[in-house]
What does this fold into?
Amino acid sequence: MAEKPKNPHAQLPHKRPRQSRAQFTVDTLYDGFVRIWRRDGPEAATTRAIAEETGYAVGTLYEYFPNTTALLSGYVRNCIEQDIVRLREYNLSSEGKPWLERLYHVIRVTAGQHPNSPYLDHEMLLREGLISEERHHRHAFERLAQIWVDIVSSWPDLPVRPAPETIRLMFLMVWGVRRYKLIAQVKDSELGNWLDDIHTMCRALLHADRPSAR
It folds into this structure.
């Protein structure tokens, strides 16, 4: 099978921060980028504007990102990392709580409806779709899907042991709604109580699923 050509528009950060000081710098750059994006529009989020907004030199920004396209790519990846951290932390802190309550929280975080969910919008996802390669999307899907499998499978009070495929399907439903809702610019008012409805569907899957054969 012929290898798929790489996306000529793909832009990646120069490096990922390894130390806490570097992580603080990158997080500050992301915060400044989002503030400008939301306040003044995407075109206003230039390297110079981000440097002025955050108080860093332009050269500091270039240490991590060759341009604002790469910064956007890094920011979207960072949003996924934040979701993963939030899901893991909640699962540890919610031990002993009923699985229905834990399920609702996992759905809420994955759907971007948690109060501390990172900011994403229509234009961000459209541009990110142009610059990311297929393998990046697949990697993000696999990481988040596996987090769901690990978390949901760990709940001791589930009515049945769900198959991993069932849990991956639930994740895909929630993640797909989050992304396509933004891309298609679907308003909450058009979907009614969509978060509760997704919870009901996932709950039904977990009640109906057969134990996985092991």
User: Anything to note?
Assistant: Confidence is low (pLDDT under 50) at residues 1-5. The CA atoms of residues 51 and 58 lie 5 Å apart. The chain is about 65% helix and 0% strand. The domain at 16-65 is CATH 1.10.10 (Arc Repressor Mutant, subunit A).
